[in-house]
């Protein structure tokens, strides 16, 4: 099982960097120093491997949030730290990966299922933040989460924003978004985090 998970991690990394279509089972076997026979004993075909990669990726994301939630921090801080972790993996924002994904119906369906599951987790986190007093209580968090989901589809910013890095665009969207639903308590946390983040970038 350890070898299988390592193969999925390597494969997902290759798919994310080069696009799904440009990565063959031979490429994955070579990068893992295993035979194609071993690869096909574990995965029926490339789409099966891709689908399992997507499941593992979302499982890791859920585990990351769960770990953060176990810390003595607010839901707002969970969201900020989780986002920071996501942005350490810029390959996830490769448009080629998402364009190629349309060619693999089972993997695409799995992605949509996982997104729906993750959306529910986001709604729960936002509701928890309202109870903690960091998010405004009289907001429909399902709509908020759906708006965030739609915004996330902008894998690469449009040409109008080409003078700015992907990270800068996403950071601005996130902070503006969170500030709009935060209470004074939440805004204070957000401002402290933003100051800390800015200082870190300058170091």
TrEMBL record:
Positions of the HTH tetR-type domain: 1-61
PROSITE patterns reported for this sequence: HTH_TETR_2
InterPro entries the UniProt entry points to: Homeodomain-like_sf (IPR009057), HTH-type_TetR-like_transc_reg (IPR050109), HTH_TetR (IPR001647)
SUPFAM superfamilies found in the cross-reference section: Homeodomain-like (SSF46689)
Keyword list, A-Z: DNA-binding
Chain residues forming the annotated DNA-binding region: 24-43
UniProt superkingdom: Bacteria
Name of protein: TetR/AcrR family transcriptional regulator
